[in-house]
From TrEMBL:
<dbReference type="InterPro" id="IPR019165">
    <property type="entry name" value="Peptidase_M76_ATP23"/>
</dbReference>
<keyword id="KW-0472">Membrane</keyword>
<protein>
    <recommendedName>
        <fullName>Mitochondrial inner membrane protease ATP23</fullName>
        <ecNumber>3.4.24.-</ecNumber>
    </recommendedName>
</protein>
<dbReference type="GO" id="GO:0004222">
    <property type="term" value="F:metalloendopeptidase activity"/>
</dbReference>
<comment type="similarity">
    <text>Belongs to the peptidase M76 family.</text>
</comment>
<dbReference type="GO" id="GO:0033615">
    <property type="term" value="P:mitochondrial proton-transporting ATP synthase complex assembly"/>
</dbReference>
<feature type="region of interest" description="Disordered">
    <location>
        <begin position="1"/>
        <end position="22"/>
    </location>
</feature>
<keyword id="KW-0496">Mitochondrion</keyword>
<keyword id="KW-0378">Hydrolase</keyword>
<comment type="function">
    <text>Has a dual role in the assembly of mitochondrial ATPase. Acts as a protease that removes N-terminal residues of mitochondrial ATPase CF(0) subunit 6 at the intermembrane space side. Also involved in the correct assembly of the membrane-embedded ATPase CF(0) particle, probably mediating association of subunit 6 with the subunit 9 ring.</text>
</comment>
<keyword id="KW-0482">Metalloprotease</keyword>
<keyword id="KW-0479">Metal-binding</keyword>
<dbReference type="GO" id="GO:0046872">
    <property type="term" value="F:metal ion binding"/>
</dbReference>
<dbReference type="Pfam" id="PF09768">
    <property type="entry name" value="Peptidase_M76"/>
</dbReference>
<dbReference type="GO" id="GO:0005743">
    <property type="term" value="C:mitochondrial inner membrane"/>
</dbReference>
<keyword id="KW-0999">Mitochondrion inner membrane</keyword>
<dbReference type="GO" id="GO:0034982">
    <property type="term" value="P:mitochondrial protein processing"/>
</dbReference>
C-alpha cells in the first residue's frame, strides 16, 4: 500500500474571516452546501484563512472530491495510459510481471476517488487501485503505480497476499521492497517534502519510515512498536533484495 503520510491535503491556519458572515451550523459543522458559487466561495475563504473548523475542512475536501471525481479519474486514467506506454520503470515491471504469469494493464489498474487518504493499493483479486483525488501529478502517479506493481510482482513471485491475515513479516518485506524500488524515496522527493534528516542515509530512512507506517496500519498489527520490530527483523534481507532489478533503479 502506498504511504500517504507525506502527502496529506493541505489545511491552513490564519486570522478569523471577519468579512464573511458566520454560517448557521448543523451539528457543529461550518460548511455550507456547495450548490451555489457564493457558498463555494464562502467555504473556500473559511478553509483558506483557517477560520473553518477541522470538521468543516474534512467536509470541504470530501465535497470537492465528490464534485471533481470525474475530472480526477479522467486525468488519472490519461496519466496511467501514458505511463504504461512510455515509462521505463512501469514498462519494465509490466514485462517482469508477465514473465511470472500475471498481466497488469489498463483493465485492472483502476482510478477511483478514495475516502481513506490512501494513494493507492494492490489486491491480488482486484488489481491495482490509484486514488485519483490524491495523486494529481504524473510523476507522483508513476511512483505510486511502481510501488503497487512491486506488490503485484511479490504476490506472483513469493505468493504474498497482503490481506489482513497475512504474516506481518511478509507485509513488511514487500513494503520495504516497494518503497525501495519504486523511486518514491529518491532524494528529490524527500528534499521537497522536508523529510531529509541525514544526507547519507535519507533513502534508508524513507524506506523504513514508509514500511513502518504501512505495517502499523494493518488490522493485525498492535501498534507502532510492533511495526518497528517486524520491519527491523526483515530489514537486512528485504532491503538488499532488488528483484527484478539488478540494483535500485532510481
Amino acid at each position: 500500500m502506498a504511504d500517504p503520510s507525506d502527502m496529506s491535503k493541505p489545511t491552513t491556519s490564519g486570522p478569523s474571516a471577519a468579512t464573511i458572515e458566520a454560517p448557521s451550523t448543523v451539528g457543529g459543522a461550518d460548511f455550507l452546501p456547495s450548490d451555489t458559487l457564493l457558498n463555494r466561495f464562502k467555504n473556500f475563504y473559511r478553509m483558506a484563512t483557517g477560520s473553518m473548523s477541522p470538521e468543516g475542512q474534512r467536509t470541504y475536501w470530501a465535497d470537492a472530491d465528490e464534485r471533481y471525481s470525474a475530472l480526477d479519474c479522467k486525468r488519472c486514467e490519461d496519466n496511467r495510459d501514458y505511463l504504461l506506454k512510455y515509462s521505463p520503470i512501469i514498462r519494465y515491471m509490466s514485462e517482469n510481471i508477465r514473465r511470472l504469469g500475471g498481466d497488469i494493464n489498463s483493465s485492472n489498474i483502476r482510478c477511483r476517488t478514495c475516502t481513506t487518504g490512501m494513494l493507492g493499493g494492490f489486491d491480488h483479486r482486484y488489481g491495482i487501485m490509484l486514488c485519483a483525488n490524491w495523486v494529481e501529478k504524473r510523476n507522483m502517479l508513476e511512483d505510486v503505480l511502481a510501488h503497487e506493481m512491486v506488490h503485484a510482482y511479490d504476490h506472483l513471485r513469493f505468493k504474498t497476499k497482503l490481506d489482513h491475515e497475512t504474516d506481518l513479516k511478509h507485509v513488511a518485506c514487500s513494503e520495504i521492497r516497494a518503497s525501495n524500488l519504486s523511486g518514491e524515496c529518491r532524494w528529490s522527493n524527500e528534499f521537497f517534502r522536508n523529510k531529509i534528516m541525514a544526507f547519507t542515509t535519507h533513502h534508508q530512512d524513507c524506506v523504513r519510515r514508509r514500511a513502518i507506517h504501512s505495517v502499523k496500519n494493518r488490522p493485525n498489527c498492535a501498534d507502532e512498536k510492533q511495526a518497528e520490530k517486524v520491519v527491523d527483523e526483515v530489514w537486512q534481507s528485504c532491503f538488499r533484495d532488488t528483484r527484478p532489478f539488478d540494483e535500485i533503479y532510481r
